[in-house]
Amino acid sequence: MKVIKEDLPKREVLLTIKLDDEDIEPHVQKAYERIIKRTNIPGFRKGKAPRAILERYLGKDALKEEALESLLPEALRDAINKEELDSAGMPRVDQVDGDPPVVKATVPLQPLVEFSDYLAIRVDEDSTEVTDEQVQELIQYLRKEQAPWEPANRFVSFGDQVTIDVRGSVDERVILDEKGIVYIATEENSSPIPGFVDQLIGMKTGDQKEFHITIPDGYGSDELIGNECVFHVTLYENKEKRLAELNDEFAKGVGDGYDSLASLEDKVRSDLQAEEERVARRKYEEKVVPLLVECAKIELSPLLVDHEVTHMLADERESLKKQQVDVGQYLQNVGKSADEHEEDLRTMALDRLTRSYVMRKFAELEEIDVSPDDLEKEIDTLVESLGDQADNVRRSFDDVERRRSLSDAVLTRRTLERLTEIARG
Predict the structure, then answer these.
(1) Cα 331 vs. chain centroid, distance in angstroms?
(2) 277 φ, ψ to 5°?
(3) What is the DSSP string of 215-268?
(4) Hey, what domains does the chain have and what are their CATH numbers?
(5) Closest C-alpha to 209, from 236, 237, 183, 235
(6) pLDDT surpasses 80 at 226
(7) How many whole angstroms separate alpha carbon 91 and alpha carbon 5?
(8) In angstroms, how far is CA 58 from the centroid of its own chain?
(9) Among 77, 74, 95, which residue's Cα sits nearest to residue 85?
(10) pTM, to two decimals
């Protein structure tokens, strides 16, 4: 095998691989062994015809084409290793011709990333102080969640729970007929159509009411939109929440561990603080990472972007298939042609790859890594609270791919932690 290397722009290399008979023969023999098992040749038992007979029966080209399936990956791998290329992805085979074959393939190299002074990045942090108002708002939410529904001997108000029969018709065609349904009469409730809940306000148990509402866009089929729907409602029951007094007894009813209202308020404040800090940390990272990208100059192979777009399209098709949505229908819904959609994905792919390689280079410069011991400690942390499931979960990390995924996640976390340290000064 002879290899000729030609450097191309944008971190790509063109390899011309000239194969000889010694390179090809083992793969042709393996191709014969595969083909003969599935080929019936008159006069021979299946799988027993000599190679020369098979070649005459199918033609030599058939064996060579089969041989190329295993030959090409091996030849490309050997050529990349021989030229000591720092490849970043699958090569693209551009041409295969001749006898013996000459293969031309484009190899994407690892992107070249150079930084200006990223140590000068600075970003101010937002306050994460939890206010008394936030604490009391959540306490009131818990108070409402804990409160039981009890009969309300009054007219329906927003927030009540009602039991109703409802019938809706358009031009005497019944489109809704439900009996004994439980309905929460909140101002935000737009079911079955906006304005319905408003008509329930002021009714009382035993009332019947007829009202008309025009069906708006987004509710019902196209032929119903813009038509007037006549509703008939019978109200059987009205309930309201009976809120408990805010005292120690209320706190004890929320859950184990709360022996007083003060202890409940402390836990609510602590949980809110942790959530505020988590959200603030995520927002801070979203501000800092683009600044690191701005500090970087990256030279990226277009072939890597092509590969990423291909993966994104495959993932998208799989997701749509699970949702039983046709690709053409999806494109129609988003108002894009196939070419426009692919161009959008190309922009996303370029952004994703740029960020990934910039972060990877930053981690390298900052000497951030994840050792096997680090990974074991991470697994220990993950399983320590799982009780009986701990051993099963730990064994699941014997899988190489799962360990690699966890390692990548830990590396990303540590890289972001170091970057935010720099940004805070």
Answers:
(1) 19
(2) -70, -35
(3) PPTTSS-TTTTTSEEEEEEEEEEEEEE-PPPSSHHHHHHH-TT--SHHHHHHHH
(4) 2-110 (3.30.70.1050), 119-146+252-299 (no CATH), 148-241 (3.10.50.40), 302-424 (1.10.3120.10)
(5) 235
(6) yes
(7) 13
(8) 48
(9) 77
(10) 0.72
